[in-house]
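User: I'm writing a short report section on ligand binding and want a predicted complex to refer to. Could you take this sequence and protoporphyrin IX containing FE and write out the structure as tokens? A short remark afterwards would be nice.
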Amino acid sequence: MLKLGTFVVLCIAAQPSPAQDSPPQTAVSPKKEEAEALEACAEAVLKGLQKIPATRDLRFEGKVSEAEALCRGGQRAVQFRNTPWVDWSNYWGTGDASSVPPLLVSKAVEERGIAGALLDLEYQRIALIKFNLFDNNGTYQQYVSGRDGVGGPALKVWPEMRLKPDDPNFKAVGGDGGQECKGDLLRWRTINGICNDVLNPAMGSSGQLFARNVEFETTFPESNQSVYTRNRHGDRLGLLQPDPQVISRRLLTRAQSNPAACLDGHGLPNNSKEANCDYKPAPFFNVLAAYWIQFMTHDWFSHLEEGHNAPQFMEVGCTTQLVNNIPTPLTPAQIQDLGCRPQDRMDRGYVAQDTPPGTFSSGGHQYLDRAPKTMKNTNTAWWDASQLYGYDSVSIRRVKRDPSDQAKLLLEPSPGQSGPGYLPVLSPGDPMNPEWAGQEAAAFPDNWTIGISFLHNLFAREHNSFVAEFRRLAAESPNADCGLRDPAAPKKVIHYKDVTPEELFQMARLVVAAEIAKIHTIEWTPQLLYDEPLYKGMNANWNGLLGTGDAEVSKALSNLVVSSFGKSKDVVKETQWYSVFASGPGIFGLGSKVHGYDITKAKYTNGGVNHFGSPFNFPEEFVSVYRLHPLVPDLLEYRELGKDPNQVVEKIPVIDTFESRATEFMHKRGAANWALTLGRQRLGLLELNNSPAFLQNLKLPRLDTPTGQIDVVALDIIRDREHGVPRFNEFRRQYGLRQLTSFDDFVDHSLAPDSSARLDQEKAVKVLREVYGQHVCDASKVITDAQRNPDNTEINDCLGHPNGTLIDNIEDVDTVIGYLAEPVRPHGYAISETQFVVFILNASRRLFSDRFFTSSFRPEFYSRLGVDWVNNNGPGPAMIEKGMPNGHRQPVSPLKRVLLRNIPELSAELDTVVNAFDPWARDRGQYYCLQWKPRPGAESDASFSQTTSCPASK
Ligand code: HEM
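Assistant: Sure. The structure tokens for the complex follow:
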């Protein structure tokens, strides 16, 4: 437990610290280092608390002063201060056992490191809330200039979020008068997402425009609309420039040691286990986690309408490459060498608005009032399990209820399989594209694969498990108060026996959506970001730091707020610091435990949400960092539970589990075998040259083009360009991360010069230079206003290199490429720090903004059973996991409970599993170890033919 006294020495200096040369590393005794660190802590205290800066260019970039670095991480933290990467990952205790100080040093040192990391992350989040919210729906001017004397960030209701007169619920919410959701619109998650916010009915609903996290002026850099973008990129960029298929083939392709055993991801006949497609696997994250995140994105957003884009077709590259920095046509021999396809065509992305945006001025600055083009999110932005339950009037027709009990989802037995059954197949009358025929009926049917099939079936079973338990309680105590209330008759007690099938169905949806959000927040994410600060941070998002046993950290954060802003009357400051306050109690359930709670009044039902002055929707930049296709291997190592789980019996190409073939495989082989298969195998690392071959050659017959194929990996780059995502370096500056100054920054110079990782990075730098090129720089051209040089001068085209020299086109690197190339990541991070910073903002916002996760997380909406189910991960009291994983006493994780409940055959396999997204047969070792080593009993599993071990603790 942290002592408050220790905590106050964590404060950060007021200004970004200038880069400095690394001091030579000398061997210092642990005790001496501790003494030096303490001295540094005292120096840091004298400098006082950091203030959130007034302008974006003065953000702290995740870099702290030398004293703070020394205080929190000793010499190691100081040594890496001059790299572009955030400092906290070098603090004590933030890595594996080797980051923990030796025993002779006091425990407070380690705690200081972890708490310092949490504090840096909190500062990042506050600054992100202040500088990175840009709504496209017409509210941005109010955000900047305020309205009716209220500061923009403190606004809570927007006319733009009203339902329009042609909406069928227009009258029900108040028509032309003040709009407020009432009655059934208030009780449940609605199909198209309206009325989550009681006073802003349209917010987050299907068809609202995607937001942005970057200044509108920096979007669509190809269109050269601002002087900065012109100075940054010259005339080098276009939709197909640099060529996306060339980028895909040169920078993203997986190298194969035996191409004949892989066959571009098609494997060998009869799913022979002799097939092999090399990929770079992550030792601490399994394939189930890859499909989980695809499953999540199908809940959160989509640019497509019913699985397709706009009717116009476009070319997709494989036509040019740079020769002496000039785009030059590819020759047929080069095309063949690359393996790309100039004949591929793809349908263009939909655009909602492309007329020039309006402008306004405020405080002497000129602003755009939206991005030059906008796109619609055709899904609900809420975390409402809409991939299962529907998001519009078409998708809901694919959601089948059980005719014998309308509260349940329809599950049908599959011949030869026992258990609760499987989702039915789409029937001819259902709305569908021809290629979906034969696959399971689900609200979101696109890109259906075996993993998506598995998760849909699992949560349909979970829905029915909840209904069954509710019915059991109803049979046991029919006259008991179930906790539910109807806002139309709020005083009337609803007994178990009074609950209608429709009410029970909607309640189960609320519960399943909350469980999914909980799994994602405290199980998936802490495994994606496998270290102690993130374990604490994510649990704090959900339960609050109080819930994690860190009452002292929580208290210290509150003190920080009070000492900085406690006496402020400034609503803007209060809004920024709200997120810090929320670290104490946690975001989940915020505002739900208010005395006198009344479900007929918006001030209670809606009282816990906070949109920070900008209506909630996902930004285009969020979609970009979820383009996680490298996670998917080409071949699935198929295992069977009834045989020896340690044996891979087949290698099944992922591509052969696409669409109806997923359903066939699921029905024939059964959920338990697929759980075992997906749970044991490692997913692919998010790095360069690790994208699946099958996705580079995906057949999409619906395209009716000369090849009928598309390179999805190249398409990721094209779509980002269509959506105007800024290129990587400006993307980082916009999010408050330090810029890179050449491709050489993609090399981790702390690695041994002859290490294979470093040699790979150096090879990638060479290819980046060939693909993206170089130019002669012009120091008179200022390229950004989002960041400044360490000496406070403006950043120009030369990025610190002498004027007129040939420098790397680092500014042109596509964001997807840049984040995959990042060589330095915090310990246990499957994603890079650039992707992570996008999550810091948006992952907490989608909790802060959702009434059903905050002030409406109450028995009146969920029932008593529902509230307990979400809190305890299922029926009955919370179950506690064996031992102290990573030093924590913790409940059995929520997904493990869902799996045990709905696929009980897995109980022996899951016995030693702590986190369902950690490869199931891995020995987790000690403290955030990333080793690849079999747990006892799995020694004969061939996937452990090459093992690695953790560094020993000091
Ligand atoms: C076998 C697995 C997968 C297949 C076949 C697949 C296929 C596709 C295709 C064809 C598109 C292009 C849509 C378009 O813009 O026209 C796409 C987009 C996308 N995929 Fe995947 N994908 C797979 C797995 C994943 C995974 C594991 C993730 C992880 C998050 C993911 C995230 C995305 C995202 C974020 C988009 C952009 C969606 C949008 O713009 O709305 N995909 N995928």
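A remark for your report: The CA atoms of residues 10 and 116 lie 6 Å apart. The chain has a mean pLDDT of 91.
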